[in-house]
Amino acid sequence: QVCPGLRxxxxxxxxxxxxxxxxxxxxxxxxxxSDWKAERVFHLYFHTGQREQSEPTQLTIDTHSHHWEEDRSxxxxxxxxxxxxxxxxxxxxWVGATVSWNGTDTFF
Length: 108
Known about the structure:
Blueprint (H helix, E strand, L loop, with lengths): L3 H4 L5 E6 L2 E6 L14 E7 L9 E6 L22 H7 L6 E3 L8
Antiparallel strand pairs: 1-2, 2-3, 3-4, 4-5
EC number: 3.4.19.12
Pfam families: MINDY-3_4_CD (PF13898)
Family: Belongs to the MINDY deubiquitinase family. FAM188 subfamily.
C-alpha cells in the first residue's frame, strides 16, 4: 500500500533523465500544484547527487518573459541560442519560459 503523500506530492517533483544523466527537479512552493497565479516567477531546484554538486542548484523560472527581451545579437542557428536539456525539459511544462541559473555554471 502506497501512502497518500507518495501518490500526491505536497510540492512539485520531477525525476529527470537527460543525456544519460539522472537528477531530480523540485520546487518548495506547494502553490505551484494548485494555483496558476504562482507560476509567474518561481524557483525550482535541481540536484544530480553527483560528487561535484554538493547542494541543489537554484533556478529561477519566469513564465511571462517575452521573446523580444532575448539577446538579438545571436542568430537562432548560432551555438549561443541552443538551449540546455534541462531548460527544454522545464519548457515541456511551461512553454516559452526563461530559465535563470542565478550565476551558477550550467552543467546539465
